[in-house]
Design a protein that fits this description.
Helix 5 packs parallel to helix 6. Helices cover 40% and strands 12% of the residues. The protein is built from eleven helices and nine strands.
């Protein structure tokens, strides 16, 4: 219920919704108890009926696979634990360094080939486009923040200390005042967002003393490429900024919010401090190479899944289910 997209206000409707969730959970648990060799698969699975379905499968001891679009072109997510900030990817640098060491001497730049397939998402809104970069000429140094869909599960569940999209925008407005003279923050709304953030962004730009520029016209990747660094809550564009060798500030919860890959900020003060010296933001290029190579070669299978890749993912799912059943 806590993760429901809409929680009814009336007590009787909340009771009915709770009853529906119980039915869904119990039905799933009964099914997988009777079919322990079956694998539960769902898209996303963070909220709603699919969350209840996967919870029932988990408690019956079944193997599970959560599916989602990957932030890399031509790839998908198939994870036995969850997607986005709940995925199974280790958050420790040592894991990726150990994996890379086991590979021996080799070229670590192959992951960059995937970046050639990246294009900005087509817009569903007349007031948000993917036009040319004329507005960037002579704009001066800037940070770029691609906003996300306000009611997306990434924002609702994993915003961290900001709380939500209005909280994130307010935090950006406060931090923008700390930018050095001549710098500004460029912000762009998500092209798929049905809800316009125009009023909130106008207030934030005023609070920022005009140093926050809302540019809904220029192509997302053109703004990213021209920026000195990217600021994100937990958008996939933060990961895609690696292809442009940009420093990234991560405010919310993201699976790639690992020091060295990006610059995680756990508070408003930390965000302000990062904006105070944007020219000093950096990253560990070698760590990024190994991290991205692991994503490209191991974690994200092709969206044209072959039998070998599927068998490997099913084996991972069954291993995780077995560990859960044993209490590990």
């Amino acid at each position: 219920m806590a993760r429901a997209k809409k929680v009814p206000r009336l007590a009787v409707l909340r009771w009915l919704k709770g009853l529906m969730i119980r039915w869904q959970y119990n039905g799933s648990r009964r099914y997988f108890s009777r079919h322990p060799d079956h694998v539960a698969v769902c898209w996303n699975g963070l909220t709603g009926s699919r969350r209840a379905f996967m919870a029932g499968a988990r408690d019956a001891g079944a193997a599970r696979l959560f599916a989602e679009l990957a932030p890399l072109p031509g790839r998908i997510t198939l994870d036995p634990r969850g997607v986005n900030a709940e995925n199974s990817l280790p958050r420790e640098r040592g894991f990726y360094e150990d994996w890379a060491m086991a590979q021996g001497q080799r070229d670590w730049q192959g992951w960059r080939d995937l970046g050639r397939g990246m294009v900005a998402r087509p817009s569903r809104r007349a007031d948000v486009g993917q036009g040319g970069g004329e507005a960037l000429d002579g704009s001066g140094p800037f940070l770029f923040c691609p906003l996300q869909v306000p009611d997306d599960s990434q924002v609702r569940l994993f915003s961290g200390w900001c709380g939500d999209m209005p909280g994130f925008i307010a935090a950006l407005a406060k931090a923008t005042g700390a930018l050095p003279e001549g710098w500004h923050l460029r912000v762009k709304e998500h092209p798929s967002a049905r809800q316009s953030l125009g009023p909130a962004l106008s207030r934030a730009a005023t609070d920022a003393g005009g140093r926050m520029v809302v540019d809904n016209t220029t192509d997302t990747f053109a703004q990213l490429a021209a920026s000195q660094a990217v600021v994100t809550l937990n958008s996939s564009v933060g990961l895609q900024a690696f292809f442009h060798d940009k420093p990234v500030i991560v405010v919310g919860q993201a699976f790639f919010a690992i020091p060295g890959l990006v610059h995680p900020v756990p508070s408003q003060d930390a965000l302000n401090a990062a904006f105070t010296r944007p020219e000093a933001l950096g990253f560990d290029a070698d760590f990024r190479d190994r991290f991205m190579s692991y994503l490209a070669e191991v974690y994200y299978p092709s969206d044209r899944l072959d039998p070998g890749e599927l068998a490997r993912k099913l084996a991972e799912a069954r291993q995780v289910a077995s560990l859960g059943a044993s209490g590990a």
